[in-house]
Design brief:
Blueprint: H1 11-14, E1 17-20, E2 25-28, H2 29-34, H3 53-63, E3 78-79, E4 88-89, H4 91-96, E5 100-101, E6 109-110, E7 128-130, E8 137-139, E9 146-148, E10 156-158, H5 159-173, H6 183-191, H7 202-205, E11 242-244, E12 252-254, H8 270-278, H9 283-297, H10 354-382, E13 390-395, H11 400-409, E14 418-423, H12 435-451, E15 456-457, E16 463-464, H13 468-472, H14 475-488, H15 499-507, H16 522-532, H17 537-546, H18 548-554, H19 565-579, H20 583-593, H21 598-604, H22 606-613, H23 622-628, E17 630-633, H24 639-654, H25 662-670, E18 685-689, E19 695-697, E20 702-706, H26 711-730
Parallel strand pairs: 13-14, 17-18, 18-20
Antiparallel strand pairs: 1-2, 3-4, 5-6, 7-8, 9-10, 11-12, 15-16, 19-20
């Protein structure tokens, strides 16, 4: 801390310890509040909670000349306010010497000789009573460590208990635990140096605190439900798990019925998508689904189409990957369906002949794989910085963000250390679990959380949002750092960056021209459309008049004398809303991505990195899994027959003739259900051995398969083992 010089991180005693990388500044919040020569001259979103950086520097220089009367070291920024008292001290030293700091009005502080004390009637009996917070005994004496309730005769408390209670309850719920008095009790406690933060109670802010009171909708509403056990059947962590619409929550789908992966969160029902379409979002998907539904029966079937992420494949879409490369075509003569889940703003529907479509898709597929291989090699080069020193992160999967943030901010964390993950909310560690599997699961959960967090905005292709609280807490920097660490340490890529966000990071915001699809705010998008599609000068002027206040606040007002002026105006609004508005978050995010040299490599290889940052991972296919694993076998094993069984089984899984998925197979063997951008280390292998059941050796990424006489025996053993192993792990 620049004010007290201590590295202690104890929020209960010294307030939150905050580090601002852009200012090269670390400070305890209470040290800043109580310093005698500094005031909040800025707005709350300026500097450090209104304390301007320039003022903080001046206060540090002033304090450097003052010696602490307690520890005798320089830097004492706090002085006693009692007349003629010249004592100065650091905040932690004052706490140690039992000084009083009043967190109210002028934030006065009193030394150990002039501090206020509670007055007790002489006739009041002395003895011991019970602290009504911790229930331990407390002496009824006017001491620094003991406080008496001003509203109840026999209510005594430990100072430490009261401070913890105040931090937890906040200003709205902190009151006398005996009589429930609030005003008189808070006034006395503030006078005696108890800090009562202006926030809601911690139990009100707890995530999912009232989850038991919620009733979840569990029904598959897709018109052609594929589940043989019915629309109400729900099996968590399987392809028959029901996902609810993220917008209304009153419609659902099985993962398999909408071709979704288990970690995908952003599914919308057709009714909500139609509402978005009317407001300008999902315009391309709307055209597609309407065209399909009109060909069906001439009416709009709201619950017929699957998720916009993956158009339904025709029955003839499966190809034998052993005979020819897979070419997947959508029904109704649409363009070939990409294995990449493209963001909405990057999707284009084209009308090509089937032969040309297949040829183009095959070439594009080879190009994408080449770029992903390039990214893999770059990340492997960056990973050479990682040493063997281990940093353990204790992670609560149910509170992934806070536990990850705490881990990344701990003093001994370094991006160049080997990261080891321990999930603290798991009662018993799975026998098949490994450090690599835990680490991949952690990064997977973290990327999903980031995608759905308030740091980003947009439906599928995300831009940075403007969250003032996140800017104050430096969360954009932490998010960029986490993404960089995930890429280099073998985790998944985010896959949700919009092209505009990616270009801002790579080429600089001044060289990027945003599009209407980048605007997530429905009202702002509607305003832009009113101006963009004005067909006369009078209608343009009317549109400008209707949104005059918005344009003035954005600094986009300009004289309009001709209809063509609307293009410049639209461009100004887009640049302000998408880029200039988030200048501070973007710069902080870029600084975080510089961790381990990731941003520098992005700028050197933009085309390659856009495939992993702007697109979801390639959808697993039988061909992908087949190419991923190298087959080994002992000399007494028929390698060809074993390989035939293996490849045939992959085809059955891909065509849906199995209870497991390709992701399940990959998870069983490696602990990951997707291929990370850096690839696997060591590379996955298959061994055919004389064993009863298959074994997934995740430490070596090796799948040990049994030698069987018939294909049916091979398939039954695979499905029995994989399904039961993963079920036990989930439990």
């Amino acid at each position: 801390c620049v004010l007290c010089g201590r590295t202690d991180d104890c929020p209960e005693k010294y307030g939150e310890k905050r580090t601002y990388v852009e200012y090269n500044l670390t400070v305890h919040y209470y040290c800043l509040l109580m310093s005698s020569g500094i005031w909040q001259r800025g707005e709350e979103d300026e500097g450090v909670d209104g304390f301007l950086i320039m003022d903080i520097r001046k206060e540090v220089n002033r304090a450097a000349k003052l010696k602490c009367n307690i520890c005798k070291k320089k830097g004492a920024s706090i002085g006693c306010v009692a007349p003629k008292c010249k004592r100065s001290y650091h905040f932690p030293c004052g706490i140690q010497k039992e000084c009083i700091f009043q967190f109210m009005e002028d934030f006065r502080s009193y030394c150990w000789e002039h501090k206020p004390v509670q007055k007790l009637p002489d006739q009041e009996s002395r003895g011991t009573s019970q602290c009504t917070i911790c229930l331990d005994l407390v002496e009824q004496l006017p001491m620094y460590t003991v406080l008496k309730s001003p509203c109840c005769k026999n209510a005594w408390f430990h100072r430490e208990c009261l401070q913890y209670q105040a931090l937890s309850a906040g200003i709205f719920f902190f009151r006398c635990t005996v009589c429930n008095n609030k005003d008189k009790f808070q006034k006395e406690m503030l006078r005696m140096g108890i800090h009562i933060p202006e926030k809601d109670a911690s139990w009100e802010l707890e995530e999912n605190a009232y989850q038991d009171l919620l009733q979840c909708y569990q029904h598959c509403d897709i018109k052609r439900c594929l589940c043989k056990k019915g629309r109400d059947y729900n099996e968590p962590d399987s392809k028959w798990e029901i996902k609810r619409c993220q917008c209304c929550g009153s419609r659902g789908t099985h993962l398999a019925c909408s071709s979704m992966k288990s970690w995908e969160q952003n599914w919308e029902c057709m009714e909500c998508r139609s509402i978005f379409a009317k407001s300008g979002n999902y315009s391309k998907q709307k055209k597609r689904s309407l065209a399909t539904s009109e060909k069906t029966d001439g009416t709009t079937c709201l619950l017929e189409e699957p998720s916009p992420k993956c158009p339904r494949q025709s029955s003839g879409s499966q190809r034998n990957f052993l005979l020819q490369s897979p070419k997947i075509m959508c029904q109704n003569n649409f363009a070939p369906c990409s294995h990449l889940e493209l963001p909405a703003s990057n999707r284009v529907t084209m009308s090509l002949s089937p032969l040309m479509s297949n040829r183009n898709w095959s070439l594009r597929k080879k190009h994408l794989r080449k770029q992903r291989m390039e990214v893999s090699n770059i990340l492997k080069e960056l990973k050479l910085q990682v040493n063997t020193k281990t940093t353990r992160l204790n992670i609560n999967a149910e509170n992934i963000w806070n536990s990850a943030l705490k881990g990344f901010r701990q003093r001994n964390f370094s991006p160049t250390n080997t990261i080891e993950i321990k999930f603290t909310n798991c009662k018993k560690r799975s026998k098949t679990d490994t450090s690599a599997a835990s680490k991949h699961r952690f990064f997977q959960l973290l990327m999903v959380h980031l995608q759905n967090s308030s740091l980003f905005e947009g439906s599928s292709a995300k831009n940075l949002s403007l969250d003032f609280q996140a800017v104050k807490e430096n969360l954009y920097f932490e998010a960029g750092k986490m993404i960089a660490v995930s890429l280099v340490h073998g985790g998944p890529s985010p896959g949700f960056f919009s092209k505009t966000l990616f270009n801002c990071l790579v080429y600089g915001p001044e060289n990027v021209k945003p599009a209407l699809e980048d605007v997530a705010d429905v009202d702002v998008a509607q305003t832009i459309k009113m101006i963009k599609y004005a067909n006369s000068l009078s209608s343009l002027q009317s549109a400008i008049h209707n949104c005059y206040e918005f344009l003035a606040a954005a600094g986009c007002l300009r004289p309009v004398t001709a209809l063509c002026d609307k293009n410049m105006l639209v461009n100004d609004i887009l640049i302000h809303h998408v880029i200039k508005r988030i200048t501070s978050p973007l710069e902080s995010f870029r600084q975080g991505l510089k961790t381990l040299g990731v941003l520098e490599k992005m700028q050197m290889h933009p085309d390659a990195f856009s495939t992993v940052l702007c697109h979801k991972p390639e959808r697993l296919s039988a061909e992908t899994i087949c190419d991923l694993f190298t087959i080994h076998s002992s000399s007494d094993v028929n390698k060809v027959e074993g390989a035939d069984f293996w490849m045939g089984y992959l085809q059955d899984v891909e065509s849906g003739e199995s209870v497991v998925t390709l992701e399940d197979i990959l998870l069983f063997a490696t602990g990951s259900f997707s291929i990370p951008p850096i690839g696997f280390d060591p590379e996955p292998t298959i061994k055919f051995l004389h064993i009863r059941y298959p074994i997934g050796n995740r430490l070596l990424n090796c799948l040990e398969l049994p030698v069987t006489k018939t294909y049916e025996q091979f398939k039954n053993k695979m499905e029995f083992t994989i399904r039961n192993t993963l079920r036990v792990e989930r439990e």
